[in-house]
């Protein structure tokens, strides 16, 4: 995310291995659609999350050779916004056990999503980033980016999630 658009600073919190492993399991394995997309978490921090998608034939748009489908981009960005909210909730409740914090995500859901497609997603893998702009008691606001392997920005998104 660019410096001008960076969210307010969040204390540097070190998540326990049990929490990180549990969150990766939920995100990469238990959420079946994320597994289908091949989303793999590469960085999990309280203030920013990052993941990667490798290009596969199933992800290519019907009429566009070697271009990742816009629906895959949208779904990936939405998933990343949700992951950023999960990390922020986990950081907010560090007084609880990792297992207690992992159970807080059952009611998380998207209530609004806007995606801006800036250029065609062409490449062999992609990086996705997300951060929470505001975590309220009921709603969280996020900002996300979808980038090529070279760091070129393909799409941006903003979303709101219900957290209670």
UniProtKB/TrEMBL annotation:
InterPro entries, sorted: ACOT13 (IPR039298), HotDog_dom_sf (IPR029069), PAAI_dom (IPR003736), Thioestr_dom (IPR006683)
NCBIfam families: PRK11688.1, unchar_dom_1
Similarity comment text for this entry: Belongs to the thioesterase PaaI family.
Key words, A-Z: Hydrolase
Ranges annotated as spanning the membrane: none
Keyword set includes Hydrolase: yes
Record protein name field: Thioesterase family protein
Location of the Thioesterase domain: 66-153
Record-linked Pfam families: 4HBT
Organism annotation: Polaromonas jejuensis
Keyword Hydrolase: yes
